[in-house]
Write a structure and sequence with these properties.
Layout: H1 6-13, H2 16-19, H3 32-41, E1 47-49, H4 51-60, E2 68-72, E3 79-84, E4 99-102, H5 108-118, E5 129-132, H6 136-144, E6 150-154, H7 155-163, E7 168-171, H8 174-177, E8 183-186, H9 188-193, H10 195-214, H11 216-226, H12 237-255, H13 271-283, H14 302-305, H15 310-318
Parallel strand pairs: 4-5, 4-6
Antiparallel strand pairs: 1-8, 2-8, 3-6, 3-7
Length: 323
């Protein structure tokens, strides 16, 4: 758990899941494949990952492809390629022969950055290499020491680096900037047969996202209380808060698509946005065969996700005193 996961901690700690009659166990993994496998096998009910590995699973077929995007969580793109500001990399073409640092080699960000570099005609392994460097201080050290030329991480990681005085430059392409990011998914069977649980989960996450966007500091303090290990050893909560608050404030812009007041749309997929994803995935060699966008997602529960008193949640967040 990290600062980017604070809405999950909010939903858990403030009882939003419990209000829906749910007991939610949060399981962290280091790769997308294990999440997809867990959901498709039934050992997990709901998974969370960006769309790239889900689309790959769809094109390959089999049990792992029997998944559906059910709740549009992060509504703007979190990923990009970053270099130190003094780097000699000025364009995507300059990445020929580069080493790109990844959190690990099973993460969806690797697929995204490969796709970005593919737009410049660069192919992994032959034109550039990916190297697992972890996250946080380890990833930053790999970049500053020259072990990698760039990082392929996400918004909250980059924000934390910059909050500590490290100036970065970013590389992406217009096609990627328009894409949504992390999504909650399940199997069509779970969404159909356990509609109340699926809808309740989404409604709890909608409330938690609104709470977090209203009072990011409260969301972080809830995270630290629920998961004390998220506070770095040797740091005070207040010191941790200084850097994490920068990260969460950046994440909130993506969670809310810059419009936290846009009610009745929590969890909703815009058909054009899903089509943009499938078009990009095909053009970027993330998938090798076309996908029908309508086969990827469902908005069947959106009305239920948004069936709550938003004013009550905003008031709770505004008045939160650390109980």
């Amino acid at each position: 758990m990290g600062a980017n996961n604070s809405p999950l901690a909010v939903a858990e700690h403030l009882g939003y899941f419990k209000e829906e009659g749910l007991e939610v166990e949060i399981i962290n993994t280091s790769d997308s494949a294990s999440i997809i496998q867990g959901v498709s096998s039934g050992s997990l009910e709901i998974g969370s990952t960006p769309p790239e590995p889900l689309m790959q699973a769809k094109t390959k077929g089999g049990p792992a492809g029997d998944v559906v995007l059910m709740y549009n969580y992060i509504r703007k793109q979190t990923g990009s390629i970053a270099v130190l500001d003094e780097s000699d990399k000025k364009s995507l073409g300059d990445f020929r022969g580069a080493v790109v640092g990844q959190a690990n080699l099973g993460i969806s960000n690797l697929l995204l950055s490969n796709g970005i570099l593919n737009s410049a005609g660069l192919k992994p392994d032959s034109d550039f290499k990916n190297l697992a460097v972890g996250t946080g201080a380890a990833a930053l050290q790999a970049l500053k020491s020259g072990n990698v030329d760039a990082l392929s991480l996400w918004d909250t990681e980059y924000a934390a680096f910059e909050a500590n005085g490290n100036k970065l430059r970013y590389f992406t392409i217009p096609d990627v900037e328009t894409l949504f990011s992390t999504t909650f998914f399940s199997t069509p069977g779970f969404v159909k047969d356990h509609e109340k649980a699926a809808a309740g989960f989404g409604r709890a996450m909608a409330k938690a996202t609104l709470f977090t966007s209203t009072n990011p500091e409260a969301a972080l303090r809830i995270l630290y209380k629920a998961y004390p290990q998220t506070v770095t050893a040797g740091k005070s909560v207040d010191d941790q808060l200084k850097s994490d608050l920068v990260s969460v404030q950046r994440r909130v812009q993506l969670l809310t698509a810059d419009d936290p007041s846009a009610q009745k749309s929590w969890g909703k997929y815009e058909p054009a946005a899903v089509a943009a994803w499938t078009d990009f995935a095909l053009s970027a060699d993330i998938i090798s065969t076309p996908l029908n966008p309508s086969d990827l997602y469902t908005n069947a529960l959106v009305e239920k996700y948004n069936d709550f008193d938003s004013t009550k949640v905003v008031t709770e967040a505004t008045n939160w005193k650390g109980e």
